[in-house]
Write a structure and sequence with these properties.
The complex is a heterodimer of chains A (349) and B (85). Chain A has a single domain, classed as Porin. Chain A has 3 helices and 18 strands. Chain A has a 16-stranded antiparallel barrel. In chain A, strand 4 and strand 5 form a beta hairpin. Chain A is globular and about 60 Å long. The relative contact order of chain A is 0.13. Chain B has one domain. In chain B, helix 2 packs across helix 4 and helix 3 runs antiparallel to helix 4. The radius of gyration of chain B is 16 Å and the shape is globular. Chain B starts with a helix and ends in a 10-residue tail after the last helix. Classes of the chains: A mainly beta (349), B mainly alpha (85). Chains A and B meet through helix 2, strand 8 and strand 9 of A and helix 2 and helix 3 of B.
């Protein structure tokens, strides 16, 4: 395992060095080692509390720094590290607190043409919309992920190709193909898998619909398929998103989320920086109980969550939510409260 | 056969060329799918951020250039460029 890790690290360093060399010989579009751009360290620090009954609560900090390193005009090296220290108090017993930390991704991308991007390294497996776009704690609308999130919470070590172009002025096609060659090692996550994603975007109504497929090639070989959509309603600051996933061995489910920003509802400063969120979701466990992913519910479950977000400044988000979960004829409420601070720092700024 | 191939290539190229919307339209259509607001940054930072978002949001180079020009122009003016609304 250590050998593989060293090999991967050497390959990554070699790739970054090669990119740096190429960058120095890149045409002078922006010029310089960074192609007229600048390295950035950004990310978020958050603290979240979940209470699912008076005697059971989970709280703790989460730190997600991101490094963006442009190289010449055609390369970008980027990495995100995630650190989390959840503390659980159940039945008046506190802890233990176990630090979990790992790379979310560590990838080098080459912008080959206006429409083609080639990425190598450790990358977030492109599937659906949540993992790639909405997972960062600063970006997500509700503090907790959808129930079906663990079905496509994967990374790959390998390569990915993306292309996007307009079929007509009113329709854009996005296509992604990915291949994960090996299992993850140490703090670098990875699954042996291959798959792809196709999306159509209609700029007029601001509506996007996509389909994803992934074939898991590890010890257990199975298929995962998904559909997703995003609609930014033009007339009012309302976003509606949803995702449905089917997995041979892991079950199936969906979530639909609506987020309404109150900026147009009132001139009041507090409400102009506020947002109301609602999510409905359902998970159907497989006919044969699965033990591949312990983060998924063990029985059919549905949930409804309502949330309220407030941004006191451009850097800080305060989020509050209440959800009700129903399974096996029982129901329980989950309260969530969190604060997220977003930071951005650039070389020379 | 050759003519058909040529037509396919030309058609594909026309698709790739597409039409380029204005920067604010590209911003509203793409960035606000996930982001509520964008803080003002110096242009050098926007160059990095837009390059990063070309991957995540599936932006073409002309779209990325349009967003960069739009953000750079409004970068120092608005403290919070909530351009969507």
């Amino acid at each position: 395992m250590t050998g593989i890790f060293r090999l991967n690290r050497c390959a990554l360093l070699a790739a970054v060095s090669a990119a740096a060399l190429l960058a120095q010989t890149a045409p002078a579009g922006g010029g310089g080692l960074f192609g007229g751009a600048t390295p950035i360290v950004t990310g978020a620090f958050g603290f979240t509390t979940d209470i699912n009954n008076p005697s059971n609560l989970t709280f703790g900090p989460k730190f997600e720094p991101v490094i963006l390193l442009p190289l010449g005009n055609r390369f970008l090296f980027e990495t995100e590290y995630s650190m989390e220290l959840p503390v659980e108090r159940a039945d008046s017993t506190l802890g233990p607190a176990i630090l979990s930390h790992s790379f979310e991704y560590m990838q080098l991308s080459y912008f080959a043409t206006s429409n083609l991007i080639i990425t190598g390294g450790n990358f977030v497996t492109p599937f659906g919309i949540y993992k790639e776009r909405l997972d960062p704690q600063w970006t997500r609308n509700l503090l907790d992920e959808p129930m079906i999130f663990p079905i496509n919470d994967y990374s790959s070590i390998g390569g990915m190709v993306r292309t996007s172009f307009y079929l007509s002025p009113s329709v854009k096609l996005n296509v992604t193909a990915d291949y994960g060659a090996t299992e993850g090692v140490a703090q670098i996550g990875g699954e042996k898998q291959t798959g792809g994603q196709v999306g159509l975007y209609f700029p007029g109504p601001r509506f996007e619909v996509g389909a994803s497929y992934s074939r898991k090639l590890g010890d257990e070989k199975f298929n995962v398929a998904g559909m997703d959509f995003v609609w930014n309603v033009r007339r009012t600051p309302l976003d509606i998103r949803g995702e449905a996933v089917w997995a041979d061995l892991l079950g199936k489910g969906y979530w639909v989320e609506g987020a309404w920003r109150l900026s147009k509802a009132t001139g009041n400063r507090f409400f102009r920086h506020s947002q109301i969120v609602g999510r409905a979701e359902q998970y159907f466990s497989p006919a044969q109980a699965q033990d591949l992913n312990e983060d998924l519910p063990s029985v059919n479950t549905k949930a409804f969550t309502a949330g309220f977000n407030y941004w006191p400044t451009d850097h800080v988000k305060v989020a509050f939510a209440y959800g009700r979960q129903f399974d096996s004829g029982q129901s329980q409420g989950i309260w969530s409260l969190g604060v997220v601070y977003r930071f951005t720092w650039a070389k020379g700024e | 056969m050759k003519t058909a191939a040529l037509l396919i290539v030309l058609g594909f190229s026309a698709c790739l060329a597409g039409s380029l919307p204005e920067g604010d339209q590209v911003y509203k259509s793409n960035c606000t799918r996930c982001h509520i607001s964008m803080r003002p940054f110096p242009e050098k930072m926007y160059r990095t951020i837009v390059r990063h978002m070309r991957i995540k949001a599936g932006l073409t180079k002309p779209e990325a250039d349009a967003v960069l020009a739009f953000l750079s122009a409004m970068g120092t003016q608005a403290k919070t460029a909530d351009a969507r609304h």
